[in-house]
Amino acid sequence: MKIDKKYIQLINDPSAVKILSTVSKSGIPHVVVKQSIHYEDGKIVYLERLEGSKTNKHMTYSLWFNKMVAINVLSKDKMSIQIKGVPEKMLVAGSVFEKYYTSVNKKDSGDLAAVYYINIKEVIDESYVQPDYVMGYSLSEEQRNETLNLLGY
Length: 153
Fold this sequence. Notes:
Elements: H1 5-11, E1 17-23, E2 29-33, E3 37-40, E4 43-48, H2 54-65, E5 69-74, E6 80-91, H3 95-108, E7 114-125, H4 141-150
Antiparallel strand pairs: 1-2, 1-5, 3-4, 4-7, 5-6, 6-7
């Protein structure tokens, strides 16, 4: 899925907070901060560092059974998006895996368990926008009554 350039920049911003939400096979949610998420060639790429982690188990389950995962990305200036997608590929060896493994080791001498590619299904802008008015505060009595009538109250 093609997404807006501003969302790509947000996803790839190292200072943005990235939160990955997965579910277990029994439907129990698991939500964690994962800064190893980025956008590349139309997909979300997630680098899983720990082979035995709950996230890795849930991502594998989602891959095998075509289950949706969600990612929230929040910038310093409070721009927020939610991405819904389905893992479509997991790499644990090969040249692409080695490229990411080398990159991870240069940063912090850490390990890499898997590289996941997530097929984007939906992107929702979750940024808070201040409404033009707040019911009851900035409306006159007449405007308030007219609005309530239009809403069926």
